[in-house]
Amino acid sequence: MSKHDKRAGRSTREMADKRYRARVRFILPMVGLVILLLLILNVSKALKVGGFAFLAVAILVRLVMGFTDAKEKKMIREERRAVRGAKAEEEIGSILAGLSGDYYKFISDVVSPYGNIDHIVIGKRTGLFLIETKAHGGRVSVKNERLLVNGHEPEKDFIAQALRNTYWLRERAHDVTGLEIWINTLVVFTNAFVEPTPPVKRVRVINKKYLLGVLQEPNGGQKDTALWENWHKMIMLLAKEPAWT
Fold it and tell me: What pTM, to 2 d.p., does this model score?
C-alpha cells in the first residue's frame, strides 16, 4: 500500500515525549528544593535554626519528597501509557501497510476536532473504515451498551469518542463525493481479549487478529465506488492541517 505523510502513532509518540519533558521540568526544581532544605538542616546551628523552626523544615522536607514521589509516579504512568498507545497504533499501521494498494488506501494519525483518528481506510469493494486503536490489556466486554475493560469503565468513553470522529469523517466524505457515505467504525484492541459482542451503537469492538477479516468483508456499492474513485482527494483533504489547529 502506498505511504502517506501521516505516520501511525506520530502524535502519540509526541505526546509521550511531551510528558517526559514535563516530568523533567517538574523533577529538577523539586530536587533542587529538597537539596536546599537539607542543606539548611545540615547547617542549622550556624544559621541558628532550632526548635520549632528546625522541626518545621524537617517536616517540609518529608512533605516535598512525598509529593514529588507521588507526582512523578503518576507522570511516569501517563508517559508509559502514551508509549503503549503509540506502539499499538504502529502495530495496526503495519497491518494496514500489508494490504494491497490496488484495493485499499489508508491514512494514519488524522487530526480532528475530537482527538486524532488513529487510522482511516478506504476499500475499493469494502467501503470506508474509521479505526480507533487501544493498547489496554486484560479482558474487554460490553454490558448495557457500555464498554468495560477488566470489568470497569475505562478512563475515556471510547465509543463516544469514535462516534464523534465518525460524524466528522462523514462530513469530510460528503465534501469529496457529495454523498452520504456509510462509515464502518472499529475500536481495535491490540493486547486485550475481546469477548464476542454485537456492535455498540454501530461501533464494532474487536481484537487486532480479526481486523483484516473485517476490512475484507464485502460491502461495496455505488457510494463506495464514488469514494474509491476520489480516494486521492479524500486522502489529501484529511492530510491537511485543519483551520482550528
Answer: 0.80
